Amino acid sequence: xxxxxxxxxxxxxxxxxxxxxxxxxxxxxxxxxxxxxxxxxxxxxxxxxxxxxxxxxxxxxxxxxxxxxxxxxxxxxxxxxxxxxxxxxxxxxxxxxxxxxxxxxxxx
Length: 108
Prior knowledge:
By secondary structure, the chain is mainly beta. The protein is 0% helix and 49% strand. It has no helices and 12 strands. Strands 1-4-11-6-9 form a 5-stranded mixed sheet, with no helix packed on it. Strands 2, 3, 5, 10 and 12 form a 5-stranded mixed sheet that branches. Strands 7-8 form a two-stranded antiparallel ribbon. Strand 7 and strand 8 form a beta hairpin.
């Protein structure tokens, strides 16, 4: 499981990077204005799942499955709803093949 870094994009422009999705899943910072970007360069659709650690009135909140079509890019808000006790979200993948991921926030 890799700890993905938060990349802050500045008004003058930023060079962003994407890491290969890890077979055992990844973690990332989350919160207001943070998003996760998935790039699927493969011919097969993939699914990334954001683990929701919270409960509502004692009931588990369902995890969020994010479909990532073949040869596409998908952006997903990484709200604090996904934050574990360490403040990071956990992401799992049905298969990491051809999948790259980055975590971003605009500079305020």
